[in-house]
Design a protein that fits this description.
6-stranded mixed beta sheet, alpha+beta, binds magnesium ion, binds adenosine-5'-diphosphate
Length: 697
């Protein structure tokens, strides 16, 4: 194998490939399209398509696909080969500009939330030239957006690109006020840290719950869990190290900047972090990373679990979304500056984020809501369902002194007035990394920590980009054309701090006291998916998305429906899986074991009338009682599922899943896990938690 710099990005039709393979003029036109988001001329597209095809064929590709991200949260592709028949019966490899730019997959089975009636089911896909084409398993993949014929977004990429445009436009307006006329575009950047579990494939294959739902629905606590913290950052086991090596190679070939890898807190849990990139690229790359993790794990006879809570009682998996804003000059707008004037600008962007997070707490919460993530948020390892922000002591003090017009530095007695003269240089990166905050400032970026490991990061970034675009818009509207810019700026920052300081919390986010305090502050605590999703259609939220042209009302209504539908379906599958496991495997196993113990006791008694059969007898009694209870609870769950048919609409159904089905599933699990603890391992039909969590050696 060549060295990393040699093969990095070898499967990507990136700038280097374009430069070497496209005629100069075409390359220039292509660059312009990428930079300004302009439409590609069909003549140019034809040249690009042909060069792309030649490159792909040389690299072993036979097919191409429009690779898109429907509202399932994962990616979709339909392969077409390049072959085109010739008169003499042979074939040539062809690919036209038309095929590159636009596709028409018959994708009628993807969720559309009613946006697309089946008679007009053919949505279309359109190339996103800002994300490079790449080869995956012999297929040239073209990153595309997926829309209905009416132009409604049916995917995650379209609204993400729209939200990036929205924040870019408003940020440029603000920068003009600071005299930065040379900035022509502003984009958000993201580095998502991905957590995952690895389990042995043979054991996984024996667990219907993992196969059907991605998480364990039963399983008694093992003697050892994560209490010793001996896994976190521990040395990586050879089998896992071999997986990581392969994974890195695959990712690097695709130009994905995989950077950091380590063991996480729970046994069998790991993390991968890339170097950050532009948000839509980071999103594409994160989708690819998840897919490739699963593929590479299988090669090593392991399964990569991306579920947010595969195991009860040990940490679940999240995805930290490190987010910032950057100009086309490469300046990070959330980096405290070197001069007071830079810092005034930094403070304004910081305030824009504070205001956005406070005004749209509900949307941020919704963006990470799913049946899987409900198990994690508010559990003791993850941030609570309450959205709050951590800024660190230093920055907090600065904001307080601006708000109260008091001295920031006690020694120097400088009054905090935002403007050219008095704002001090900020000490860089003094943040002490409050790990319990859902939304933390970490020196030059924000880290949004509520995302679940299986989530597409698009949803959270659509909300973040749009909400911050709205803050910036209100600031630009206020500041453009004022006589005294510095005074107006100072007042604006002061007012933002006053109005939105309730969202700032620097203490321990896992503390119960905080939840009470948050309530006193009027912050939302939307604990579950059904609790929060309804707010998606709140007037203020519809207005926000329409104003910035990110979603129309119809698109939001569709997404609302899909979210609830997905929640209901997920829990329904879980409940049915539990019923299947109990009826077909667990109850019969307990029954056999009880039979075996009874037989043993009878045999012992017939040989020795005075034999002590207390173990057999007591266990038979306990297991009989437990199996009776399991049987009654599983019947209960079955009838409850039938009763759901009476729900009037999706919202009511979701509410019933939450308040009726989930508690019944928990009760069923509790008695079953108790039975597992006293049933012979030989009889228990599934690998135990101990085997799953410590099975990869
Ligand atoms: P950790 O949080 O694990 O200590 P870092 O803070 O160094 O690690 O980085 C975490 C992630 O944040 C990485 O993926 C990194 O690339 C990303 N990151 C760093 N700077 C930015 C930025 N300006 N915008 C977005 N993400 C960033
Ligand atoms: Mg981090």
């Amino acid at each position: 194998m060549n060295s990393v710099p040699e093969y990095f990005g070898c499967m990507v039709f990136d700038d280097k490939a374009m430069k070497s393979r496209l005629p100069k003029e075409t390359y220039k036109a292509m660059k312009k399209t990428i930079q300004d988001g302009k439409r590609l001329d069909i003549a140019v597209a034809n040249v690009v398509a042909n060069a792309m095809k030649d490159w792909a064929v040389e690299n072993g590709a036979t097919h191409f696909t429009h690779w898109f991200q429907p509202m399932t949260g994962i990616t979709a592709e339909k392969h077409d080969s390049f072959i085109s028949p010739c008169k003499d019966g042979s074939v040539i490899m062809e690919f036209s500009g038309k095929e590159l730019v636009r596709g028409e997959p018959d994708a009628s089975s993807f969720p559309s939330g009613g946006l697309r009636a089946t008679f007009e089911a053919r949505g279309y896909t359109a190339w996103d030239p800002t994300s490079y084409a790449f080869i995956k398993e012999g297929v040239l993949c073209i990153p595309t957006a997926f829309c209905s014929y009416g132009g409604e977004a049916l995917d995650m990429k379209t609204p993400l690109l729209r939200s990036m445009e929205a924040i870019g436009k408003q940020a440029v307006r603000i920068l003009k006020l600071f005299g930065q006329d040379d900035v022509t575009s502003v984009k958000t950047t993201v580095g998502p840290e991905q957590e995952y579990f690895l389990v042995d494939k043979d054991m996984y294959n024996k667990r219907k719950d993992l196969i059907f739902t991605g998480r364990t629905l039963f399983g008694a606590k093992p003697p050892k869990g994560q209490e010793l913290d001996d896994h976190y950052f521990g040395s990586i086991k050879p089998r896992v190290a071999a997986f990581m090596k392969d994974l890195n190679e695959e990712l690097w070939k695709l130009g994905i900047l995989a950077k950091t890898e380590h063991n996480e807190v729970a046994p069998a849990q790991h993390e991968l972090a890339p170097i950050f990139s532009t948000t839509n690229i980071a999103t594409d790359h994160n989708q690819l990373t998840m897919e490739i993790m699963q593929k590479v794990a299988k090669k090593h006879n392991m399964i990569c679990l991306l579920h947010e809570k595969p195991f009860a009682g040990v940490n679940g998996s999240g995805k930290h979304n490190n987010w910032s804003i950057s100009t086309n000059k490469g300046v990070n707008l959330l980096e405290p500056g070197e001069t007071p004037y830079d810092n005034a600008q930094f403070l304004l962007f910081l305030c824009a984020v504070i205001k956005a997070v406070d005004d749209y707490q509900d949307l941020l919460r919704i963006s990470v809501a799913s049946a899987g993530n409900d198990h994690r948020l508010g559990a003791n390892e993850a941030p609570p369902a309450v959205v709050s922000m951590f800024l660190g002591d230093e920055l907090n003090e600065i904001l307080e002194s601006i708000e109260n017009e008091t001295a920031y530095d006690a020694k120097e007695k400088v009054q905090m007035k935002v403007g050219v003269h008095v704002l001090p240089r900020f000490p860089k990166d003094t943040t002490d990394r409050n790990r319990t905050s859902p939304f933390a400032f970490t020196g030059n970026k924000f880290e949004f920590r509520m995302l679940g490991s299986a989530n597409s990061i698009a949803g959270a970034n659509i909300v973040l980009n749009t909400a911050v675009a709205e803050s910036l818009k209100s600031y630009a509207d206020r500041l453009e054309g004022v006589d005294n810019f510095e005074d107006a700026l100072h007042e604006l920052i002061k007012k933002t701090i006053k109005d939105h300081k309730r969202i700032i919390f620097n203490g321990n986010g896992y503390d119960d006291e905080w939840i009470k305090e948050a309530e006193r502050r009027g912050l939302l605590n939307l604990k579950t998916t059904p609790d929060c999703v309804a707010h998606l259609l709140d007037e203020k939220n519809v207005k926000l998305f329409e104003e910035h042209k990110v979603f129309t009302r119809a698109e939001l209504e569709a997404r609302y429906e899909i979210r609830l539908e997905n929640y209901c379906k997920t829990i329904n599958i879980e409940a049915l899986t539990m019923i299947d496991m109990v009826n077909k495997d667990i109850l019969p196993a307990i029954s056999s074991y009880v039979g075996e113990l009874s037989k043993t006791a009878a045999t012992k008694k017939s040989c020795f009338a005075s034999a002590d059969c207390s173990y057999e007898e007591k266990t038979v009694t306990r297991l009989s009682a437990l199996s009776a209870s399991i049987y009654s609870k599983v019947s209960d769950l079955e009838s409850a599922l039938i009763s759901l048919k009476s729900a009037a609409d999706e919202a009511e159904e979701a509410e019933m899943f939450k308040s009726v089905i989930i508690p019944k599933m928990q009760e069923l699990r509790a008695v079953t896990d108790e039975a597992e603890c006293i049933t012979s391992a030989e009889y228990w039909p599934y690998p135990s938690y101990g085997e799953l969590l410590f099975g990869v050696r």
